[in-house]
Every structure is written in C-alpha cells, then in structure tokens.
Amino acid sequence: MNELTKKGLETYTSIRGKERAKTWEDRIEKGGFGSAMTELSAQYAFGSVWARDGLARRDKSLVTIGILLALRQTEELKHHISIGITHGLTIKEIEEIFIQATVYAGFPAANVAMQAAQEVFKELGLN
Fold first, then answer.
1. What is the CA radius of gyration of the chain?
2. What is the 3-state secondary structure of 36-56?
3. Neighbours of 29 (CB within 10 A)
4. Where in the chain are the domains?
5. Model-wide pTM > 0.85
6. Does domain 57-123 bear CATH number 1.10.600.10?
7. Minimal CA–CA distance to 7: which of 34, 62, 45, 35?
8. What span, in angstroms and rounded, lies between the C-alpha atoms of 92 and 39?
C-alpha cells in the first residue's frame, strides 16, 4: 500500500471511524471488483483533498453538503451529513445549508435532501 493510500485511510479513519476504515483497507488489500475505486477514493478524496489545510473540515462539510444537495446525490449526502455532524455542524446549521442551496439548486433538490437528512438524524438519534 503506497503512502498516499495510507494517508487517505488515516484521514478517513479520523472522519468515519476505525470500523469503516478497516472495511476500506480490507477491500483494497483483497483486490477484486471495487478495490481500485476504493483505493482511488482513499488516495484522492481523503489523502489529497480532505487532508489539505486550506479549509477546516467543518467548512469542507458545509461545501460538500451543499454540492451534494444540488447534485441530488442523496446516498452520498447522507454520509456527508453524518460527517458534518462529526465535524461539529448542528441540525440548525444543516437546515441553513439547505435553505441557502435552495436558492440555487431549487426546491425539488432541497426537498429530497431534507428527507435524506431526516433519515440520518433519526439513525443518529437526533430527532
């Protein structure tokens, strides 16, 4: 495993926890279908981008949630809402992200995102 993959897995561990990171590590080491994509995610998304110093992780979560809302990527949005909460975002702040994004992405995208957020809040016992 190269250094960038290791760095990505360390960053991913700090964001999503040891159990999820271990799943990624096992998938990468095992090889087979999905291992290359997982390694690319570890290297690029987490080893290069999330590990950068330019923005605080909390701010990166704000940006990511808004983008995923606009793209209607609800499954990924659910992950990043949880990550945002880990980074200190409140339910009220997440709602404000949605309100801000609604102006540019539209009500249908925001409504789908609201449903996804409610699922995450319920899973985390925050509702």
1. 15
2. HHHHHHHHHHHHHHCCCCCCC
3. 10
4. 3-49, 57-123
5. yes
6. no
7. 45
8. 34
